[in-house]
Design brief:
Strand content: 35-45%
Distance between the termini: 115 Å
CATH topology of the largest domain: Pectate Lyase C-like
CATH architecture of the largest domain: 3 Solenoid
Helix content: under 10%
Largest sheet: 17 strands, parallel
Radius of gyration: 32 Å
Number of strands: 42
Structural class: mainly beta
CATH class of the largest domain: Mainly Beta
Length: 490
């Protein structure tokens, strides 16, 4: 081959190689990128509208292809499928699942999400959740979908005047709320109040809760999946300020918060008032009742399962617990080391000191005028469930009369008639069920030593104590049982 022909062949070969390479590069640019994954403008889509009229709302978000090559998403599907409350719309097509969606290089697509809830259906969950699942070559990603699915009254950071809440539809408290000074919040039987995380109810005025045995008023978290049914600390507390007087809570269930009720404040020596009756305070990440120098009367009430004390009665006050059941087995995810019941006439309050610029613990003390426990059960899963903190200067008056008490024998003098009368010490209370947290039942088993162990003169003095929390007569067999429930034999 001549040199001219060789040069011509070489030029042709190079040209062909460049052409093939160019075509190959173009084809690569057109082929989907096997490693590309979508990214999203939002990882959670929240519908924070209360659906009071139409019962529907629409949100949208963007799905991005950050690659310089096309991306194919094999499927986009609602995890809840056709049963989901949500609907997706992509390129005008509405379906719970769409397949083989291609997004061009450095491009995006809109996905529209709608949720429809019948606002007249009171059985819908308060919080509706689903997720939109993206499957890209076997790699799964999701965008969470959250909607408030009942026709709720949304209370968000409000300071309210006098009003009445009724059972027709629930109340959802976001960002806490307060009852203003001089105002009254009345809550009727069967009303449900749901709290979002870290939200509380603050009472500067007055709270009247008028539940019944058949229709209690329920205060709880706003996550209703079964898993969250027994998780403590999902909301704050019902806080009764020291200026608040005349509060009454009857037949309430208060569960899954940080503290069931906080009444009073360490550095404020005004005396708040509360009558708490026929209620259940359950599963709190700190305390059941957390009181500072308060005036509290409590009967036919169960306080159970807290990470700290079930009853923390601090910095003095005046307390009466009649026919109450206190049983503390702690909460899921937290170990408990302190006693279930704490009585104190002093509290070391963390306060900011301007001079030092540091937080210091300031002793705040007051008279414990009375802490009387009659016909009650004070129990838990620790060996010692009572703690007394006496500053030796203020009054420190307490009595346990006809009570079942769990406490180390060397820490109390149960023969001291000034403080203890007819105590059942360190005997198993034998509740029907205090271990299965999904089915707790603090009624007494037939073997319980608390049966017929009460003081009948209490009922003579206060006849309204004759029915137990469920309306069963305590005089049916001659002697009242201890605790909130009278055992009814078959």
């Amino acid at each position: 081959m001549s040199s001219a022909n060789s040069l011509s062949f070489l030029i042709s070969s190079v040209f062909l190689l460049l052409l093939v390479t160019s075509q190959s590069c173009d084809r690569d640019q057109l082929d989907p990128d096997p490693d590309a994954r979508p990214s999203f403008s939002h990882d959670t889509i929240t519908f924070d509208t209360v659906f009071t009229a139409i019962g529907s709302a629409t949100r949208s978000f963007k799905v991005y292809n950050r690659s310089n090559r096309p991306m194919v998403i094999n499927s986009i599907a609602l995890a809840g499928g056709s049963d989901s409350f949500f609907r997706i719309n992509l390129d005008g097509v509405s379906s719970p699942e769409q397949n083989n969606i291609e997004i061009p290089p450095d491009d995006s697509l809109f996905i529209f999400i709608a949720v429809t809830v019948d606002p007249t259906n009171s059985d819908n969950p308060v919080v509706i959740k689903d997720s939109l699942v993206f499957n890209t070559r076997g790699s799964l990603q999701d965008v969470k979908l959250i909607a408030y699915g009942q026709d709720v009254h949304l209370i968000s950071g409000d300071i309210i005047d006098t009003q009445t809440w009724t059972r027709e539809k629930p109340y959802l408290i976001y960002n806490s709320m307060a009852v203003d000074t001089g105002q009254v919040l009345t809550i009727e039987a069967g009303t449900r109040i749901f709290f979002h995380r870290n939200s509380s109810m603050i009472i500067w005025g007055r709270l009247l809760v008028n539940g019944t045995g058949e229709n209690p008023v329920v205060f709880q978290n706003d996550r209703l999946e079964e898993f969250y049914e027994i998780i403590a600390g999902q909301w704050g507390t019902i806080y009764i300020d020291p200026i608040s007087q005349g509060n009454k809570i009857n037949h309430a269930i208060i569960k899954n918060g940080v503290a069931g009720i906080q009444i009073g404040y360490p550095s404020d020596f005004q005396v708040p008032e509360l009558e708490l009756t026929n209620s259940i305070i359950l599963n709190h990440s700190f305390a059941g009742i957390y009181a500072f120098g308060a005036y509290l009367t409590c009967y036919n009430t169960v306080i159970a399962n807290c990470a700290g004390a079930a009853l923390a009665l601090l910095r003095g006050g005046s307390y009466r617990f009649w026919h109450c059941t206190v049983s503390n087995n702690g909460v899921i995810g937290s170990s408990r080391s302190g006693p279930s019941v704490v009585l104190s006439n002093i509290f070391y309050n963390p306060e900011y000191d301007e001079a030092s610029g540091k937080t210091i613990y300031v002793p705040r003390s007051g008279d414990l005028e009375e802490a009387d426990f009659v016909n009650s059960i004070l129990y838990g899963n620790l060996g010692h469930e009572l703690q007394f903190i006496h500053n030796q200067s203020d009054l420190f008056n307490y009595t346990f009369d006809h009570c079942l008490v769990k406490a180390s024998e060397d820490s109390i003098n149960s023969s001291n008639q000034e403080h203890f009368t007819d105590i059942i010490l360190n005997k198993d209370a034998f509740f029907i069920n205090d271990s299965d947290r999904y089915h707790l039942d603090y009624r007494l088993d037939t073997l319980s030593p608390a049966k017929d162990a009460g003081n009948p003169t209490l009922l003579e003095t206060y006849p309204y104590l004759e029915p137990d929390r469920e309306g069963i007569s305590r005089n049916g067999d001659g002697m009242p049982d201890l605790g909130a429930f009278e055992r009814k034999e078959d």
